Amino acid sequence: MLRNASEGVIRVSGKNPHYFEYKGKEILLITSAEHYGAVISNNFDYVRYFDMLAEYGINYTRIFPGALVEPDGFWLVEDTMTPGENLIVPWARSDIPGYIDGGNKFDLDKWDPNYFSRLHDFLIQADKRGIIVEICFFSCQNIAYWKHCPLHKDANIQGIGDCDNTVFQTLDNKALVREQLKYMEKLITETNEFDNVIYEFVDEPTLMLTPAHKAYHWIDKLIDTAIEAENRLPKKHMLAQQLEIGVDFCSDDRIAFIVTQYLHLNARQVGGLDALNSCYCYNKPIEQNETSYIPSWYDRDHLEISRIEAWEFMVGGGASYNQLNGYYIPSNPAGDNEINRKILAGLRDLRVFVESFNFIKMTRDTETVRKASIGAKINMISEKGKQYAIYMHHCHTNQGRFHGTFYEPEYGEYETALTVLLEKGDYTVNFIEPETMKTLKEIAITSSGEEMELRCPRYKLDLAIKIMLIS
After folding, report:
1. Contacts (Cβ under 8 Å, ≥6 apart) of 7
2. Residue 111 backbone class (left: φ over 0; alpha: ψ -120 to 50; beta: rest)
């Protein structure tokens, strides 16, 4: 039996297991969020960040709470995951100098009360604005990151973490595992009172080539430990784990929903669209919680890329979407610039489109559209015979920096004819331009229950279609 979250806590919907519910209402989680360092970067003003998200109806963010720290300038000149001397983590500083990013080493036997005050306020401020926080306890330790981690032997006075970076994601170093479990249990205890929290175990567990079977057994131990910790506490929260080749917890009843990254399979990671195609049968929400990092990985305009990836995944049946966004930095925590405001507005429009349906009654649909006259990527959800949401675009997949994939737009003058199979009835059809939300054409059609042709108006790149039964 699937382990359920407590009443009041964000949880899997009781009406449709492909979506979430929160405070008595089914919700979509959609965001373009900062690079996970909002809490550990002590000079980052997360209130201004949250205010910007809330302005556009954005309701989700993700954090790495202390076990991963990145070296200065690794992705961007300024980045929340590279706080330098502004780093604040769960462990207190000792009186012994020598931490690689400045300041004293960490004492793993002492917690830092200032950190937990900051974490608590972060969750309070998020909750005030209706924002859900996904806390990801661990990530793979890139060899360039490892010495910056407080659990590295040179970063703490106990000398814990005397091992290779790939050992971090295994049970091989017993002393290290003991500290990892203490850290995770402390975070769970400190955040148990909050309803707007999701726990994710490990980001990219085998990306640095940790053997998959070793990573799997380590994560299995983390899950058991987290459940034991919550069983001693008042509230129970959803647990999540990223799907990778060899690390598959999709059918595990302890895991509430399936986490993916990027569009398609790459570097051992299963993409969001891959999971919609192959894992929807598990009847769990599917999340895409990372995309290629803007603007770090791009040398082109990325407004279209941002829009297309989000629309395709969410209109294809996704429950939660997070674009990795580097515009939020300590010197500009709101990410207040023209491009980012357009990105956020586009995500707001996506929410408006999906919520214009009774989406909780809809599921992924790969049968209604039988074929297209012009090559297009098509995804959709429907409540057959009543409501259909279709999204189509013309892009090819390209490879970004490192392991990220993204779309390359193919602009044109498209007038696609779709062959569709609708249940018998009379319907209204609206053709919508996602970039502007302008209705390009509205028609009424009658279906006999046989295949019929649906001619789209001219569009340049992508198109959304809303089909509703006339009652």
Report:
1. none
2. beta
Q: CA–CA distance from 216 to each of 74, 170, 204, 213, 295 (Å)?
A: 28, 8, 12, 5, 33
Residue 82 lies in a domain: yes
Residue 292's alpha-carbon distances to 336, 404, 405, in angstroms, are 20, 5, 6
**For residue 42, which amino acid is it?**
N
Using left for φ > 0, alpha for ψ between -120 and 50, and beta otherwise, residue 350 falls in alpha
Question: Distance of CA 32 to CAs 50, 288, 326, 346, 391, Å?
Answer: 11, 12, 9, 10, 20
Whether 195 contacts 121, CB under 8 Å = no
At 133 the pLDDT is 98
Q: Which residue has the higher pLDDT, 45 or 4?
A: 45
Strand 425-433 relative to strand 438-447: parallel, antiparallel, unpaired?
A: antiparallel
CATH number at residue 398: 2.60.40
DSSP state of 254: T
Residues 6+ apart with CB under 8 A from 148: 69, 70, 71, 100, 101, 155
- Mean pLDDT across the stretch 108-133? 98
The arithmetic mean of pLDDT across residues 24-37, rounded, is: 97
The range of the structural domain enclosing residue 122 comes to 11-360
Do 449 and 413 belong to one domain? yes
* The two three-digit tokens of residue 136, written as one number: 């990801």
- Shared domain for 311 and 410, answered yes or no, is no
Helix (H, G, I), strand (E, B) or coil at 78: coil
**DSSP of 290-331, one letter per residue?**
--S-BTTT-SS--HHHHHHHHHHHHHTT-SEEEEEBTT-BTT
Residues 31/61, Cβ–Cβ less than 8 Å: yes
What pLDDT band is residue 401 in, cutting at 50, 70 and 90?
low
Q: What is the pLDDT of residue 268?
A: 83
Q: Are residues 382 and 251 in the same domain?
A: no
Average pLDDT (176-192) is 98
Whether pLDDT at 72 is above 80: yes
Three-state DSSP class for residue 447: strand
Q: Is residue 2 part of a domain?
A: no
Q: Which pair of tokens denotes residue 370?
A: 């039988």
Instruction: Check if the beta carbon of residue 262 is closer than 8 Å to that of residue 290.
Output: yes
Alpha-carbon Rg of the chain, whole angstroms?
A: 23
Q: Are residues 307 and 388 in the same domain?
A: no
Domain match, 184 and 330 both = yes
pLDDT (0 to 100) of residue 365: 98
Note the pLDDT tens digit of each residue in 243-257. Answer: 999 999 999 999 999
Which pLDDT value is given to residue 333? 98
CATH number, residue 15: 3.20.20.80
